[in-house]
Every structure is written in structure tokens, then in C-alpha cells.
Amino acid sequence: MAADSSLEHIRNFCIIAHIDHGKSTLADRLLEKCGAVPQHEMVEQMLDQMDLERERGITIKASPVRLEQDAGDGAPYTLNLIDTPGHVDFWYEVSHSLWACEGAVLVVDASQGVEAQTIANMELAGQHELDIVPVLNKIDLANVDIDQALAEIEDAFDIPHEEVLRVSAKLGEGIDDLIQAIIERVRPPSGDPDAPLRALIFDSSFDRHRGAVPYIRIVHGRVALGDEIQMMSSGETFQVSEVGIFTPKLERRPCLSAGDVGYFIAAIKNVRDTRIGDTITGAERPAEEPLAGYREPKPMVFCGLYPLETSGYPELRDALEKHALNDAAMQFEPESSVALGFGFRAGFLGLLHMEIAQERLEREYDRDLIATAPNVVYRVLTTDGEVVEVANPAAYPAPGVIEATEEPYVLATIITPPDYLGACMELCQARRGIYKDYQYRTQRRVALKYELPLAEILMDFFDQLKSRSRGHASLDYDFIGYKDSELVKIDVLLNGDPVDPLAFISHKDFAQQRARGLVDRLKKVLPRQLFEIRVQAAIGTRIIASSRIPALRKQVTAKCYGGDVTRKRKLLERQKEGKKRMKQIGTVEVPQEAFLSLLKIGTD
After folding, report:
1. CA quadruple 571, 573, 575, 581: dihedral sign
2. What is the CATH number of domain 488-600?
3. Which residues contact 486 (CB under 8 A, 6 or more apart)?
4. pLDDT in tens, 254-307
5. How large is the average pLDDT for residues 559-574?
6. How many angstroms separate the CA atoms of 48 and 54, rounded?
7. Contact between 84 and 93 (Cβ < 8 Å)
């Protein structure tokens, strides 16, 4: 048991890499080699426990697991592994997982080389001063240039090629050497088991029967069954009813000590009583000050989440609170809409983060949702000197009171083969990009840097980049601040009535084009009614795009056989009067497809 063993025989490490470079497969081989899971229970992507992760083939949540390995010196080593996501939208999952570790296994795909997110994750590991174990994966693939990939690693990270381990996670080659390297190269944790308890919550989940389940890394002291613990941020105290480790299932243990990674349960029913980054200490012998914790994530993408039925608002609020316990980067606050009723304005780190969160709410909490189009946070300087942050286009000030507008910019790093450099530059220029720099990392890899408006990346930038580079380019970006921009709010009107969830903010130069694209798409997705629908886009009171959906025509003269023509005219006139009255009092239902059509207006 780790609580009684020396800290010298504990290794806490994570696996970091660009998306699809083989992190989860490598974690599977480590689990097999250390015998953590019986062979008959072993499945692919063992640590990706969500259905969404298996369906999409990506890691969404960081997953801890405890491994035992005999290094041949008589005493078994405890290896606490955390498998992390690779997509840029889940950098926060990576950052708070790194805090629980002293080392990181850096995985590079031998066929793809060093990618954008590889560099970003390596920089994060450097900030945490982790010991790096570099691994070149997929050496079994045909026609891979291993020497070229090793040269890329040496050039990008200044790691000698002799230190890079060559591994095939698929075939299990080189796994023994990797385990030995982790034991030799990753330093053991430091900490005093006899000092007052200080443990950091690096993740958590919610169990409907047992409440919140915090995942912790113990820095000093120990926690055992029956202990009184205290949350240092709120001062709330709880009694520990269960403590244990991940195997990867939750497995009870009598206690956890300094250096250990595990979980505890203490009947924490209110999800607000525990949050990621908080420090746990003992109620009877508390620590003097909390641990450093994490930098709070700043949401970059916002959208409205509304229940399909207005009566589902309380259930949606509960679902969001429970989901936020497991997804600390998501933030939300109540809002209301004339068209959709009561709902929430939710903030995310990116489009994939938003999409995954919405799908998890629908699946795990059985919520039927309507999600409005995503948008970024703009800054508006009004004529009276006030600075207004606008996360919802409906709250955009009137044109007459606007002095200046700013939008968020990111520094985008695109790594691409030279053959697609021109196509990538053309895409960035078309999205109002500001060229900064490009460097040949190797003969087959160019790093291109552009400053881009974040709003342009939200449209379909990633899909376009993959399309133009035939899947070879990779993207990473960092927020760099706000820049002046000529922005306008575009309202969508149906029969003269504004539909606030469809409003969006655009640069003035693209307003006409995108308004026309949206109106044309709405014309296709809105169901026809028994009255004419006028679809318009406007800036203030000026209409900049317009279209009409003709009324459905019922054949009222179908059963009118023979007789005087005035019989038909009378029926047609009555129909005409009815349509006129319906146009005055009829309402237009806006289906979910109408909101999704906003996502595609950048493709025209």
C-alpha cells in the first residue's frame, strides 16, 4: 500500500501528445504490461470510459489509473498514470492533470512528426517543470522516416535523439523500456506524510447516489476513512466515508498519503461545495495556506442553451451544475429570450468543447436542448465612455451609442507540409488574418503564424484547413488580446419580427455576404406555412438581405365541379382573406436547423 511505502517508489506521470498520436493506445499497453486489468476485461481505449470518447476516437476527459510494477530491485513501484486529451479545446484538462504529476511521456507520431498541439503541450509541461520522457510511436508503420521524425523532435525540443524511445503502442514493442525509463527519469514526489493535510482537487465527478467524488493529489499529510476534512476556499467541513485509488475503477483503500493520487467520498451533495483547484485540509489540524491551484479558464466561445419545453428549465439548471463539476472550463449564467423563453448563456473554450458539452448534457442527463449559434465576447466602447463586454448579440448596443468596437484575436500556429503552404496562407488572408512569420522546421514541415480574429476560427476554419491541406495541417492557437475592428450587429426578422437567437455580429466588410448566406439558408430550412413568410436581415433599420417563402396553397376548388365561374372566384377570394388574416396573427416556428445554419454561413 502506497501510504506505507517510501515516496522513492512512487512515480506520477501523464501522457501528452497531439490528437491521434496514440496516447490512449499507449495507455492500454501500459495497463496490460502492469497487469492492472485482467486480460478478459481489456478493451481498446480502456481509459476512455465515455461512449462519446469511443465513438469519436478522441480523449475528452483526463483519466487516472494506478499501476504496480516490479523494477527488479525488490520493491514494487507505484505508477500513477493520467491519460490526457490532445485537442486544443481541452487544454484545461491537460493543464490541471499536469499539476498532479512530476513527469510526462511526450508521444510523437513517427509518420506525422511534431504537430502544433505537441508543441503547446510541451510548453505546458515546461511551465510545470516536469521530467520529460520522449517517445516516438507508430514505428511499425510502413514507409515512416524514423530519422526524420527524430530530427524534428531534436530540433523542436532540443532533446537528443538517443534519449527518444522507439515504441509501437499497437504491437506492444518497446513498452518494457518505456516503463523502465519512467522509473529512472521521472523524479519521485516530494512531501511530508506527517505534515498537516494539503491535497489539490484536480478533477471530480458526480454520483447520483453518493454525491460529488473529488479526484485528489495529496501533497502533504494523509487522509483516511472517518477523517474530518475542510475545503479551504469555503470553510465547509465533511466527514470522509470512503477513500481509494483508480484501478481504473474506484477501489477502496484505508488511507492515502503524501504523493498518492486517488479519490474520496464525503457525502458532498451540493456540487457548489467542491471545485477543481480547491485545496483540502484537515478540520482538526488545518494547513496555514492553500496550494497554488490553477489559472481560471477564460471561456472564448458562448452560446445559448434552452430546454425544448419551457417547463424543463429547472432540470436543465441541475444538469448544468452537475456537468460543471466534471467540466470546470464550462461556465454558465441564466438568460431569457423572447423566442425561446428561459435558458442559460454558456461559455466554452472552443467549438469542439461546446459540441461535446451539449451532447453530454443530452445523453448523460436526458435533456432535450436548443443551442443557439456560437459567438465570441466583443468589447464595445460607448459614447459616454463605458466599456461593455457583449457575449450575447441580443445585448449589442444600438449603433448610435457606439464609439468603437474590439474583438478577440488569437495567435494561430499552423504546421503543414510545404505543398499546402500557399493554400493555408490564402485561407488565413481570407479570414482577415495578419501574417506574422513562417519557419521551415524540417524539409517536410513548415510552421506558419498568423494573428486571426477568433470569430473567424469559429465559422468553419478548422474544416477548411483540413480540406485545403488534405488532412495534413494541424492548428493550435493562443489568445493574445483585443484589437479594434469595424463590427455590426445583424438582426434576422421573420415577417418583421426580430428573432433574437438568430442575431449575429460580423465585420462590416463581410456583413452583406453573410447576411445573404443566412437568409438563403433560412429559406431552405424554415417550414412553409399557410401564409407568406418574409425573411430579412437588417443592420439597425436598414435591410441588407431579403427573401420570401411562398405560402402553401390548399386546392380549395378541387371539389368545385362545373357551374358558374363565380363559384370558384368566391372560394379563392375567401382563401385570400384567410391568408391575409393568418399573416397578421400567425407565428413562425423556428426549428433547430435554423440555428445550425448559422454555423455554415462562412462556407459560401
Report:
1. negative
2. 3.30.70.2570
3. 405, 507, 508, 509
4. 888 888 888 888 888 766 677 777 888 888 888 888 877 666 667 778 888 888
5. 67
6. 7
7. yes
The CATH number that domain 7-185 falls under is: 3.40.50.300
The letter for the amino acid at 421 is L
CA dist 38 to 32, 33, 34, 105, Å? 8, 11, 10, 24
Report d(CA 594, CA 464) in Å as an integer: 22
Statement: 301-374 belongs to CATH 3.30.70.870: yes
| Angstrom distance (rounded) from CA 197 to CA 288 | 10
- Domain ranges within the chain, ordered by starting residue: 7-185, 198-282, 301-374, 379-484, 488-600
Q: What is the pTM of this model?
A: 0.69
Q: How far apart are CA 284 and CA 154, in angstroms?
A: 51
Q: Which amino acid, 293? A: G
Phi then psi for residue 139, to 5 deg, are -70, -10
Angle between helices 454-468 and 421-430 (to 10 degrees): 150
167 neighbors 174 (Cβ within 8 angstroms): yes
Nearest to 393 by CA among 499, 518, 522: 499
CA 350-300-104 angle, to 5 degrees, is 60
Element (H, E) at 408: strand 402-416
Query: How many CB atoms sit inside 10 A of residue 402's CB?
Result: 17
Rounded distance, CA 103 to CA 168, Å?
A: 21
Non-local CB neighbours of 335 within 8 Å, separated by 6+ positions: 304, 342, 343, 344, 345, 392
d(CA 232, CA 261) in angstroms, rounded, equals 19
β-pairing verdict for 301-307 and 369-371: antiparallel
> What's the CA gap between 205 and 225, in Å, rounded?
19
Which residues are CB-neighbours of 554 under 8 A, at least 6 positions away?
Answer: 530, 575
41 pLDDT above the threshold of 70: no
Q: 144, 166 in Cβ contact below 8 A?
A: no
How many C-beta atoms lie closer than 10 Å to residue 88's C-beta? 23
Assigned fold of 379-484: Alpha-Beta Plaits (3.30.70)
C-alpha cell at 535: 425573411
The label of the residue with cell 489539490 reads: 200
Phi–psi pair at 113, nearest 5 degrees? 80, -165
In the block, which residue shows the cell 493506445? 25
**Radius of gyration, alpha carbons of the chain:** 28
| Nearest residue to 32 (alpha-carbon basis) of 158, 127, 159, 169 | 169
**Nearest-CA neighbor of 412 among 447, 442, 443?**
447
Task: Specify the CATH number of the domain 198-282.
Answer: 2.40.30.10
Residue that has been written with the C-alpha cell 506520477 in this structure? 12
Could you read off the pLDDT of 270-280 as tens digits, one per residue?
666 777 778 88
Residue 514 C-alpha cell reads as 453573410
Task: Convert the pLDDT of each residue in 111-150 to its tens digit.
Answer: 888 887 788 788 888 888 899 999 998 888 888 888 888 8
pLDDT at 134: 92
The three-point CA angle 531-536-542 to 5° equals: 135
Q: Which residue has the cell 365541379?
A: 561
Model pLDDT, residue 185: 92
Q: Which long-range contacts (CB under 8 A, 24 or more apart) does 421-427 make?
A: 421/446, 421/448, 423/468, 423/469, 424/448, 424/465, 424/468, 424/469, 424/473, 426/468, 427/461, 427/464, 427/465, 427/468
* 379-484 and 488-600 share one fold: yes
- The DSSP secondary-structure symbol of 421 reads H
